[in-house]
Specification:
The chain is an alpha/beta fold and 353 residues long. Strands 1-2-3-4-6-5 form a six-stranded mixed sheet. A hairpin with a 4-residue loop joins strand 1 and strand 2. Helix 1 packs antiparallel against helix 3. It is elongated. The two termini are 36 Å apart. About 12% of the residues have low confidence.
Length: 353
């Protein structure tokens, strides 16, 4: 369900609760009015009765001494005494009817509230089929896939401002600088932390990762200006025109068979997020699908949905022979509109075929 529909249901629920609270307060007020009315009737009746008895006593005394005929006392019949004494002030029947009316209104309100509650089976909130997409299949991109990488050329040892997850901050550090070259004419600066100790050691890693980046579709390399390489076992990262590498983590990704899939994911952050994550077409496709391909995408819909979905678009469009039919069906059934969105962009996917 879309955010707007959830908000609308929430507002309706709050309105119904306010009405319900109002009815309870009205009922409580009516009961208090009943109690107060009965008390007032008693308090107002007592002085009038006293005055009536005093007048009656005076009249009787006057009659007794012959000053006033007894026929003058005829107005003191029972009905008129009742009027004076407010004996007919009991409105309990009226209040009882009002209470019944309130009870009926409460039942009606409860029925309306129940009808407004969404049926979870019809709400469209289906759980995503995966936790995260880089772990789904190890064969989407492999080390044997083609690359457009040609060479790395050493430049110098220079200061660079680079992000380092080990300190979770941007730091100024001396780095070995290389130019990675690709057969489509593009180049990427590779910055290898001085901690690697020598040009030769730095070049080994620069060449390895530059070649891996060359396996990515051209659309994912379009905004990569730098590759940053540190030691340490920290997660890779993408964004800021950069791909962040911590070489200690590479062994884990390689063991799990997801090194290339991870680089696809991170390159999406670098080259696709800023261009597509807030576009009307992408947002419409998210709404039309009504679900996410992974829980990671769902829980970080603005930041991770493109990266989580693009890898599987690549699998469906270009690597369908490498994935199972079950996985293919799951992807197509879960995010068909996102797949259509990516396909409509006519991305340059070279060297992925």
């Amino acid at each position: 369900m879309s955010d707007s529909k959830e908000l609308e249901l929430r507002e309706k629920e709050l309105a119904l609760k306010e009405k319900e609270l109002g009815l309870f307060k009205e009922k409580e007020l009516a009961l208090k009015e009943k109690e107060l009315g009965l008390r007032e009737n008693g308090s107002k009746g007592s002085p009038k009765l006293k005055r009536t008895f005093i007048v009656l006593l005076i009249l009787l005394l006057l009659a007794a001494v012959g000053l006033l005929g007894a026929d003058k006392l005829g107005f003191l019949d029972t009905d008129k005494l009742k009027q004076l004494a407010f004996w007919e002030t009991d409105n309990s029947k009226e209040l009882e009817l009002k209470e019944k009316e309130l009870a009926l209104r409460e039942k009606e309100l409860a029925l309306k509230k129940k009808s407004s509650d969404p049926d979870p089976k019809k709400s469209g909130k289906t759980s995503p089929p995966f936790e995260g997409t880089i772990f789904i299949d190890k064969e989407i991109i492999t080390s044997s896939d083609p690359t457009v990488f040609t060479d790395v050329v050493y430049s110098d040892l220079s200061m660079r401002n680079m992000f380092d997850r080990r300190v979770d901050s941007w730091i100024d550090v001396r780095a070995y600088i290389f130019s990675a070259q690709y057969n489509d004419g593009s180049t990427i600066e590779v910055r290898v932390n001085e901690e690697f100790g020598s040009i030769a050691a730095a070049e080994k890693d620069a060449r390895f990762y530059a070649e891996k980046i060359g396996q990515l579709p051209a659309v994912l390399r379009q905004d990569i200006k730098t590759i940053t390489i540190h030691k340490g076992k920290e997660l890779f990262g993408g964004g800021n025109d950069d791909i962040l590498i911590h070489t200690g983590q590479t062994a884990e990704y390689t063991k799990d068979g997801i090194l290339e899939e991870t680089l696809v994911h991170e390159a999406c952050h670098t080259s696709l997020d800023a261009r597509h994550s807030t576009s009307s077409g992408w947002i419409a496709s998210q709404a039309a699908d009504g679900n996410f391909i992974s829980k990671y995408a769902r829980d970080n819909s603005k930041r991770e949905d493109i990266a989580e979905s693009f890898l599987l678009f690549l699998a469906v469009k270009y690597k369908s022979d490498k994935i199972s039919q079950k996985l293919l069906d799951t992807i197509n059934n879960t995010i068909p509109n996102r797949i259509k969105y990516f396909n409509s962009q006519k991305f340059d996917m070279d060297p992925v075929k």
